[in-house]
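Annotated sample (chain length 123).
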Amino acid sequence: MSLHQRQKALKRGAYAEWFAAGFLMLKGWRLIARRVGGKGGEIDLVMRRGQLIAFIEVKSRSTRDIALMSVTPAKIRLIGRTGRMWQSRNRWSEGMSFRGDIVGMGGWRLPLHVEGAFEITGM
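Output written by the structure step:
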C-alpha cells in the first residue's frame, strides 16, 4: 500500500469512527474515549449507556456485511486485552457490565450496530 493510499484509508477510518460515535450518541450512548491503544491493540470507541460500557470496533467497507465479517478472532482478542488494560486504568468503571460491539458501515447505508457481537473475557 502506498503512502497516499494509507493516508486515505486512515482518513476514511477516522471519519467512520466519528460518524459511528454520532450515530450511537443519537441512540443514547455517551462517548468515553476514542482510539484507546495498548500492547498491539486498539479500541476504536469506548461508550457508555447506564451501567454498561461497550468496547466498539468500527469497520467501514464496501458493504456493511463485509465490514462486519472483517472483524477477526485475533482482533477480538486484542480488543479484549486492551479493554482489560483500559478498565485497570479507569477504576471508576468497577462493577459495571462490559461487552464488545461492532459498528459496520458501507454502501451508503446507515451504520449497523451489532450489540454484544463478541464477549470481553476476564472482566
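Annotation: The mean pLDDT is 93.
Annotation: The longest helix spans residues 3-26.
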